[in-house]
Amino acid sequence: MERINQILKHPEFRRALEEIDRLEADRAFCRHGLDHLLSVARLTLIYAREEGVDLSRELIYAAALLHDIGRGAQYADGTPHEEAAVDLALPILADCGFMLWEAAEIVEAITAHRTGESASDLGRLLYRADKMSRPCFACSAVKECNWPEEQKNFSLEY
What we know:
There is one protein chain. This protein is mainly α. Helices cover 61% and strands 0% of the residues. It has helices spanning 2-9, 11-23, 34-51, 57-66, 71-77, 81-95, 100-112, 121-132. Helix 4 (57-66) packs across helix 7 (100-112). The two termini are 23 Å apart.
């Protein structure tokens, strides 16, 4: 997990995460900080193991850590956060030693994490984990949330 630790220490990752934390400080709904990113990583890993999908922990963690880092741009200028995340993720992945094929797989998963329209196992599992990471059952703002009722998580899966 050496490359994952490099992502966690990467100055651009740290900057993006701090910006998201600042912009979401007063947010009543789900936040997109490190807790969320790690929850998504761990759920993706569980799903992959349960389904017998052969994905490395580093690919899973890299995709999960980077999938929402474009939120700052979305708040600032309306750029879809998955597009902004790809722009931020590519140089981080290169700096942290990911090969081109690995970066391509991670970027595809990041791009598809909002829609679930992914041909890859990583993209499909990341989408599922991102949605299931939300603890709607414990949220004080659940009634004001714009998520459809059928997509809200009212029980704990893991």
